[in-house]
Amino acid sequence: MMNKKLFLLLCLAVHFVHAQKKQPFLWGVATAAYQVDGNYQVDGKGESKWDFLTNKVGITQFTIGEKQTGNVAINMYDRKQYLKDIELMKELGINAYRMSLDWSRIIPDGVGAVNEKALAHYDQLFDDLLAAGIEPLVTIYHFDYPAVLLQKGGWGNPEMENWYYNYASVVINRFGKKIKNFITFNEPYIEFFLVENMLNAQNNKLPEKEYYMSQMQKAHRQLIANARVIKLYHDLKLKGQIGIVLNVNPAAPWDEKKVADQKAADFQDVLINGLFLDPLYKGKYPKVALDSLAKYNPSFKPSTEEMAFIGANKPDFLGINFYAPAIVKGEDSAMSLKWLDNNPDEVKSNVGPVRPEYLYKMLMRLKNDYGNPRVIITENGTGFVSEDVKVNGKINDPLRTDYIKRHVEWALKAKKEGVNLFGYTVWSGWDNFEWVSGYTKRLGLIYVDFATQERTPKQSFYEYQKIIKENRSF
Ligand code: FCB
Fold first, then answer.
1. pLDDT-derived band at 4, boundaries 50, 70, 90
2. How far apart are CA 32 and CA 129, in angstroms?
3. CB 344 within 8 A of CB 285
4. Distance between alpha carbon 430 and the CA centroid of its chain, in Å?
5. What local confidence, expressed as pLDDT, does residue 17 receive?
6. What pTM does this model have?
7. Nearest Cα to 272, choosing from 295, 249, 252?
8. Closest among 312, 342, 310, 345 to 325, alpha carbons compared
9. pLDDT at residue 336 is higher than 60
10. Which atom of ligand 1 is nearest to the CA of 381?
11. DSSP 8-state code for residue 392
12. Residue 210 has pLDDT above 80, yes or no
């Protein structure tokens, strides 16, 4: 018989080996192709939806009164530039970088020939990142796609599901062995119910409520495409994981004592979060949401087979983008994500009220109501116009620093309480092109001079560096 001491020693050794093997917690920063890459006509890239919106429709002219585009952005497609940026990532101490691929570079006309130059570029970028000890988290689709497909109706065209599947297959077949973490889509809610709605308002096509609801078919199509690509990935038996990213916005009542506000908050919560979490994890849409949608869009009737297919092909992990809860008033009975601020004393952030405890609440909800999936925080961050200014060559941003610290604290508390959290990435590493807000909103840890491309790490960069050091082996 083995003596007790020897047995204990053996247990310890086994435990040690396991601990070594365990994937380290991922600490990272995030970007998306259109917001950072620039070089919009380099290496055979085709025109994308956002190239079209910014250059030809003038979306930022409509929203911020000035024409701004991502044609140059922060020049990250350029290898000389991104190698410098990788040096900054190393200095920051991150071991993960969330980035997105540009469909209009890989298949310029959406469905036809594959552009080898673009694939070679990404291959090189992945090698450069991996050589620096940084794991790429690759978003296959982040709001943007070839403009020719937009002209064919985009997600309004049933064929879009096949076009996306074809594009995603090219990506997975080419990079499936090198990349360990894929993301199918980023924030369907924001793409369809917020950004596209702005475009609709600009073109004055449909009454607001009707428009919101007609978007549901598009979101549903995306969920089916998501399930098809997850299935493909699993069938290929690749040794990584594939997930989807949702914006989670817990809804809080404007006035807790008002029944109408509370009711509206509960309703919004179903529309914003349940609408995507339930199909993904329970294979069905929440009844309240379907009933509400039926009022405006009676033609939206997902089939039992579709729902079963979505439910049967669950993501391996859920990426959550959390900025702020939606604060809701009684009269907000339609679909209407708003980041109202009910604290008059608070300095206004670019992304809504600062309420880190809601991140914790959301994480606990995923654990308790959705079967404790593997979760990574794929975006979290903020910006305050007042502090994103260079003074004597330095950017002191204590409000951003405080925001990040508090969100990390609440996230780690949830992890300690059993949430299956495996990473955290800040939006964003760099100031960049903020969609309809152009360059007017800075959310980076690194300040970018948009005219010269000069980078200057902000105070929050050094604070995040400390957080990572302290929690490296969390
Ligand atoms: C999210 C987007 C991301 C960035 C942040 C601020 O909705 O996914 O690209 O713009 O907002």
1. low
2. 16
3. no
4. 15
5. 47
6. 0.93
7. 249
8. 342
9. no
10. 6
11. T
12. no
Instruction: With CA atoms as reference, report the closest residue to 316 among 188, 227, 190.
Output: 227
349 contacts 384 by C-beta, under 8 angstroms = yes
Find the 322 Cα to ligand 1 centroid distance in Å: 10
Is 387 annotated as catalytic?
A: no
Number of other CB atoms surrounding residue 153 within 10 Å: 12
Closest CA to 395 of 457, 462, 448: 457
Ligand 1 pocket check for 186: Cβ under 6 Å: yes
Q: Which residues of 115-145 are buried (b: 16+ CB within 10 A; e: fewer)?
A: beebbebbeebbeebeeeebbbbbbbbbbbb
For residue 400, the CA-to-ligand 1 centroid distance in Å is 16
One-letter amino acid identity for 29?
V
As beta bridge partners, residue 377 has 320, 424
Number of residues in the chain:
474
Type and span of the H or E element at 131: helix 116-131
Residue 448 amino acid letter = V
For 14-57, what is each residue's pLDDT tens digit?
554 444 446 799 999 999 999 999 999 999 999 999 999 999 98
DSSP state, residue 44: G
Residue 134 has pLDDT above 80, yes or no: yes
Fold for the domain defined by 25-470: TIM Barrel (3.20.20)
How far apart, in whole angstroms, are the C-alpha atoms of residue 129 and residue 121? Answer: 12
Domain boundaries, the chain: 25-470
Say how far apart CA 180 and CA 184 lie, in whole Å: 13
Q: Determine whether the shortest distance from the Cβ of 435 to ligand 1 is under 6 A.
A: yes
* Identity of the amino acid at 392: N
Our answer on whether the CB atom of 31 is closer than 6 Å to any ligand 1 atom is no
